[in-house]
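Message: I would love a firmer grasp of how sequence relates to backbone shape in proteins. Thank you; the sequence and its tokens follow:
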Amino acid sequence: MNSSQKMLWNLYAAAVGAATTMVTAKALESAWKLTTGDEPPLPTDPQVPLRHALIWTVASALGIGLAQVIVNRFAANQWVKLTGTPAPSAKRTHVTI
């Protein structure tokens, strides 16, 4: 794989990752508002109960992490369809035990 393909993949993956994070964060904020009726808490605010700060932190981390895994897998599959080569970050490591 040449360096221009790697650069193109890095740009593509960065754009997809940023868009995924922004959309997922907005969706999580909306889900929090719908569920609790309140704005999402700021985890670093000492006035926010620790329980709420922890729940928000775990929910947002899981939501964004899962969304990025799914979208990155989709992006890697699309790369293979378009170029016929594995995405640079999708190289497999084979371990023999």
User: Anything to note?
Assistant: The mean pLDDT is 87. Residues 3-36 form the longest helix (34 residues). The chain has two helices and no strands.
